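Thread amino acids onto this structure.
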């Protein structure tokens, strides 16, 4: 029996002055990781050689010109650039941002062309990546433009799953941004991801309120009563197991979150503060709703420890495992839900 090829796992290296290269290389310094996937790092031989030398990381790699040339069972480096970038660990430089985006664009192109199966992105600095041809607040917004589908920022750590109604917008704009249409869209995307990517047939979803105490019946704010509650009731009546809005201040502390398959927070810090507190650095940022699988560690560039060999690769390793798991779950889901008539045609043709 012919062995199934290992999943080709693409890696964009993030900010060269941060810990992105370090956590990626440390992850695959453990040779056992090559049993699960074939890593494809988008950078250059010289850049990776410099990083592994600076950080004392013991790996060997295979350099290729294109992702179509990768060798299974080895760490592959796709040479995206020939020059040698100036690395200044711990500093937010224009050059660091420039090469982070070069790596990301090359990796996304390979993903779209199916030369890699999944993508894990190392952290970027949202400020130094801004350029005339890159005006995005982060990875998620860029990927939403490049890949088909409707994106949802989904933070995952084992059975704790937290998504966001709004992500990288100012707090003062949150209430105005949350509309019935947005709620329907995000809940539907989350429900579909839970079914397709995590194998949960009838997922239960909780929504956190916009205002303190979910508005206290209009005393603190009317958005929860006038916007959230009617949409939640409407979707529940149509068969989606969605509940809320819940008061965010006590939701996690009372362990109420354990009763649900996923939680949809109204805004960034409302969801990410409890998530990162409970996940202990093992969390993964997953972009749900897109036609391709992308994950990322739940931390940033960590300039304060960059170049010192102190970075913990746990979250990056979890991002690798999640990308593999979601890819397999999604493939199984697509096979199971394929039109039966189409299946018969495929069998006859073969």
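Threaded sequence (350 positions):
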């Amino acid at each position: 029996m012919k062995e199934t090829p290992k999943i080709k796992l693409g890696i964009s290296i993030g900010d060269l002055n941060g810990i992105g290269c370090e956590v990626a290389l440390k992850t695959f310094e453990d040779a056992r990781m090559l049993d699960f996937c074939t890593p494809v790092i988008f950078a250059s031989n010289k850049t990776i050689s410099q990083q592994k030398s600076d950080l004392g990381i013991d790996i060997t790699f295979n350099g290729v010109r294109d992702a179509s040339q990768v060798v299974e069972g080895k760490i592959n480096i796709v040479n995206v650039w020939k020059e040698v970038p100036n690395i200044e660990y711990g500093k937010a430089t224009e050059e660091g941002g420039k090469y982070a985006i070069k790596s990301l664009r090359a990796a996304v192109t390979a993903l779209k062309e199916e030369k890699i199966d999944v993508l894990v992105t190392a952290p970027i600095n949202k400020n130094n990546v801004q350029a005339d041809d890159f005006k995005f607040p982060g990875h998620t917004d860029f990927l939403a433009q490049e890949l088909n589908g409707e994106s949802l920022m989904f933070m995952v750590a084992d059975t704790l799953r937290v998504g966001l109604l709004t992500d990288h917008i100012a707090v003062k704009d949150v209430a105005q941004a949350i509309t019935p249409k947005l709620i329907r869209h995000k809940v539907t995307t989350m429900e579909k991801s839970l079914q397709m990517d995590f194998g949960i047939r009838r997922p239960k979803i909780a929504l956190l309120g916009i205002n303190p105490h979910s508005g206290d019946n209009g005393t603190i704010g009317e958005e929860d009563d006038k916007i959230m509650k009617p949409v939640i009731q409407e979707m529940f009546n149509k068969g989606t197991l969605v509940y809320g809005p819940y008061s965010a201040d006590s939701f996690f502390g009372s362990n109420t979150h354990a009763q649900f398959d996923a939680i949809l927070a109204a805004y960034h810090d409302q969801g990410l503060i409890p998530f990162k507190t409970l996940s202990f650095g093992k969390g993964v940022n997953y972009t749900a709703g897109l036609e391709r699988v992308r994950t990322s560690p739940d931390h940033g560039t960590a300039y304060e420890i960059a170049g010192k060999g102190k970075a913990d690769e746990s979250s990056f390793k979890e991002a690798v495992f999640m990308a593999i798991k979601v890819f397999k779950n999604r493939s199984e889901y697509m096979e199971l839900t394929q039109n039966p008539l189409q299946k018969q045609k495929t069998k006859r043709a073969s």
